[in-house]
Hints:
alpha+beta; 6 helices; 5-stranded antiparallel sheet; binds zinc ion; Beta-Lactamase; 203 residues; 10 strands
Amino acid sequence: MKFQQVYAVVDSEYRLLWVGGEWDEFALQNAAQQALANNVLSTSLLSHIAGDETRDLISGMIETVLRAKRPLRVSYRCDSPSLARAYLLTIQPMKDDRVLMVHDLKDAWHFSPPLNLWHYDAQARDHKCSFCGNVRLGENGEWISCDDIGERHPTHVVYEVCTGCRDALAEAVERVLAGEEVAPAVEESRIPGPDRQTSDQSE
Ligand SMILES: [Zn+2]
């Protein structure tokens, strides 16, 4: 399996100033032509995130990093119908009120059988967590992991954040505010950016 690293530099207004690493490969893998680097630069990061609650949580994490000037780290899933992918997201402070978001692919495994392909639909009755990918069938169902859902994965979903992820994200924010040190994903002197030679260009 190929391990990926994807970067984005975001300012305090959530504008995408720079993206790098294997960004385009990551976007295409997730079938998002409109998310290719050339199409997202200088747009708002938040405009590419589905679901009000997800947007609020991500903007809250960025604000926390800017305020505390310490890195924050959370794990999340970004699956395709055939492949489960576990990522680690590190948001770390940079100078000039910017943050670097680093997505590291940590693990991947196949779903067998593959899940049904899903689409966002504001009217859908089934829910999918934006962070762990778990699914809740109907309003009052239990959250089910995609590793267990098999052929029951819905084809239309509303994105929201499951209770487990909401707690985990709140805890990550609290730990940063309480002064816990998280090692940055990239050393400050090696932070890639528009002014520097990037790792993907030098390969
Ligand atoms: Zn979740």
